[in-house]
Amino acid sequence: MEILTPAPLKHGDRVAIVAPSGIIKPQTVHDAVPVIVGQGWTTYVGEHTFDRRGTYAGSDDRYSDLESALLDPATRAIICARGGYGAVHLLERLDKLPLRDDPKWIAGYSDISALHALMTKHGIRSIHAPMCKHLAENSGRDDDSRRLFSILRGEHQDVRLPSNPHNRCGTATAILTGGNLAVIAGLISTPFDVIKPGNILFIEDIAEPIYKVERILYNLRLNGSLANLAGLIVGRFTDYDPSRNDDTMEDMIARMVSPYSYPVAFGAPIGHVSHNIPMICSSTVTLNVTSSGGSVTYHT
After folding, report:
1. Using an 8 Å Cβ cutoff, are 122 and 143 in contact?
2. With 299 labelled, which of 6, 94, 212, 278 sits at a CA distance of 20 to 30 A?
3. Are 4 and 124 in contact (CB under 8 A)?
4. Is 59 exposed, middle or buried (0-12, 13-18, 19+ CB in 10 A)?
C-alpha cells in the first residue's frame, strides 16, 4: 500500500501527550509541556495520563486517551509520555480505527515500538524518538529534541552513523522498520510483525541478557527473516553484563549476522541513552556503511 506521511505541524496545531504503557510522574509531563508549547504548538495532556493500575497508566483508559487523540481532527501529533510495558494490550482495538483517514504523527520509543508496528501495518510513518523525560531534561534544546521537532514540521534530515570495528560495509535502499527488540520480537508472526524480508531493520534494547537477545536472533535466523534483511542498524544495548561466551552484545550480534552479506551498522545512537536520535519508521531510506562510518538518507 502507499505509505502515508502525516501532515507537517503548523503554528498553533494541537499536540497530545498520552500514556499508553507505564505510569509516569506528573511532574515529568508538566515539565515537558512548555517545551512543546515553545515550538508554537498547543498541547494537552490526555485525561487519564496520570492514572495508575499496578505498573500501568490506568486500564482501558489508556486506550480511550489514545483513541480520542487519533480521531480528533484538531490533534496533529501524539507524543507518548513514556514506555514501560502495556502498549501491546491496545493493538487489537487500535487496529480497528480508520487510521489512514487522517494520519497523525506518533512519537516515542521503547514499549512504544508496539505503536510504531501498528502504524507500519497501516502504512503510516511514525517517529521512534525521545519522550517527555528527555524533552524536559534538555528543555528541547539538544540535537535529538530539535530533530524530532523538525520531523514534525516536515523536515527529514539524514542521519550520520559512527564508525565501529564490527561494521560491515555496503549500501541498501529499503523500508526502515524496527525499534525495541524485545517488543518487536513479541510481535513476530502476528499482523504487526515489522521484521520482514527486504526491510532495513533497526534494533535497540535495555536490561536484556546477551543470551536472550541471541535467542531472538536465532528465532529470526530459523524463520529466514535474519538472512533476508536488506540491512541492519544496531542501536544501543544497555544495562547488561558480559557473558562467558561473548564480552559484548555487539560481539554476539556480529557473529549472528556473519553469514550474510547485507550492510550492518553498529553503535547507532538509538535507544535508552542520552543521545537517542529520532528515526522515521516506514520511510524508504538508503543505508550506506563505510569503513569510516555510515549514513541513513531519507527518500521523500
Report:
1. no
2. 94
3. yes
4. middle
Segment 91-114 mean pLDDT: 98
27 by DSSP, 3-state: which?
helix
* Cα 4 to Cα 283: distance, rounded to the nearest angstrom: 9
Containing structural domain, residue 21: 14-152
Alpha helices in 49-139 (DSSP H): 61-71, 91-94, 113-121, 132-138
Total count of residues recorded for the chain: 300
- Asked if residue 195 and residue 80 are part of one domain, the reply reads no
Compute the CA torsion angle 141, 143, 144, 148 (nearest 10 deg).
Answer: 80
Q: Identify whether residues 182 and 252 lie together within a single domain.
A: yes
Distances (CA, A) of 241 to 208, 211, 245, 246: 9, 11, 11, 10
| Inside any domain, residue 134 | yes
Amino acid at 79: I
Quick check: helix, strand or coil at residue 95?
A: coil
Lowest mean pLDDT segment, chosen from 30-34, 83-87, 149-153, 242-246? 242-246
Work out whether strand 170-180 and strand 200-206 pair parallel, antiparallel, or are unpaired: parallel
Same domain, 142 and 172: no
Residue 25 to residue 267: CA distance in whole angstroms: 30
For the chain, give percent helix, strand, coil, nearest 5. 30, 25, 45
Residues 144 and 231 in one domain: no
The whole-number average pLDDT for the span 143-164 is 96
pLDDT higher than threshold 90 for residue 291: no
In a domain, 221, yes or no: yes
Number of domains the chain contains? 2
Contact 140, 152 (CB under 8 A): no
129 lies in some domain: yes
C-alpha cell read off for 108: 516515542
Same domain, 196 and 235: yes
Phi, then psi, of 103 in degrees rounded to 5: -60, 140
